[in-house]
Amino acid sequence: MKELLFRAQEPGFFDQVRHRADYASVRAYLDEQYETWCTGEVRASRYSEFILFSTTGDRAVYQENFFHRQHRMMTLGFMAMIYPDREDYLTQLCDAIWDICNQYVWALPAHINNVQKYDPCQLDLDATSMSFALCIIKTVLGDRLPELIRTRIHEEIRVRVIEPFLKERWHWEFRENNWTSVCAGSVGCTVMLEFPELFETIESRMDENMRGYLNGFRDDGVCSEGPGYWFYGFSYFLSYADMVYRFTDGKINYFEDAKAKEVATFFEKITLSKNTVANFGDCGPNAVIAPGFLYILKTWFPHVSIPATERMEFMVHYFPTMLYSLTYFNPAWNGGTVEPAEYYMEHTGWYTKRTEKYSLAARGGSNGESHNHNDVGSFIFVAKDRQVLCDIGNGMYTRQFFEMDKRYQFLCASSRGHNVPFINGREQGNPKESRSVTSFDGKTFAVEFHKPYDIPELTELTRRYTCHEDYVHMEDTATFDGEIRITERFVALTEPTLEAGVIRLDGARIVYDGALATASYHTEKKDGTDVDVYLIDLAVNPGVSRFAWDVYPE
Fold first, then answer.
1. Does pLDDT of 1 surpass 80?
2. How far apart are alpha carbons 268 and 21 in whole angstroms?
3. What does pTM read for this prediction?
């Protein structure tokens, strides 16, 4: 057996984890997870909850119990590894594994086409990553697990994952996004750990999937799905790349791929301050990565900058990444600084600028991207280590949120919930051709984005951002056949104060020509929450086709 799990199978390794002060934060985190997930009983899985997604669109009720079981098993897996003298941890782990193996299906209802059809062998993100986690536990604990548990793991994975994978091609093999790397990567790692004799059979198919995943990025390495999905997808890509490199004695090496090297730098490019990132797409502004992900990333890609400590967080439910927090641990990589920097990501059309006083992120791209919002031309302004002019992130995940005829009725996915204009009262859509054109001349970042509005009379709409030491100058210019009416929309999570020619926010002020526009605001709730979102409008006078404003940090 090759050293696929790197150090986890070395004699005495978990003795170090148990006793060394370097690992104290990991031990404390796992103790907290144990109290959260492993004390008390987990209620039985219910059919009435399983079908809720198909009947009402709700996915939270079933998933709460589903993830409780998953988190419990994964937490106990680590407790049993670190504390071999605690037989109670091993017993609880065996019970948790048994419970998982008794579960009707490992996939989520939201990922099953027909929940009323009996089919316990659906392969989605959770089913495949569950098999990978079980294989890690079985491999590391070895014969400490009872033979029946080891056999049950092997057979359940064979029936639920391996045979269905070998039988057909799955939809996620053609997606070129996080699904491809998570699902294919998990299957590939499962095969190497538990069914190594099959690897030659699937090797070319795995390579096709990994190359397909990388093809989903442009040459600048931007993940248009957002930082959370970058972390999710790239972490499983790295798990597979690391394991297959060791399994083949270096013959298969994805770490020399030019695209992979560029993707590895994405997080540093979209970091705006210690506590916020450019969260375009279905992600929140406080995206984090797991320390283990950073450790394996930095090991294979030394050119990557270390993020601030605030952006790192242990995540037991990303099981392989949590293991890397132990096996790839390096105290020198436990937190960096956020320095002034500027990035123009030409191929995707994104721009970020960090200064001592503020940060700006702006985007072009298109409204046809995975996990998209209708937000071409939008921007984020950060001061005092928080977003002042915001991207409010994703809404609550329901069936309706992913139905194209309903998705853009939600504030967070629509352009009305982003810092983009209305043109003659019309917001952006996502027509078949909605790609913008961007440029950067070393001083001004420009986005031409008339296509998402799908208005025949609108032939040009260009937004320009020019960053100065103390402020950002922004300007919209439109070419329209007929009289045009532009309404600038700004989004904030704090209540504005409107003055003549000035909009004051907690952390910034917007200065504009009060003779050319009238300011107002109203509130809406962020989808699925009680959070007030302040939607500020600057109604530009009819016929004015060029309008500018400045944003100052305060």
1. no
2. 29
3. 0.95
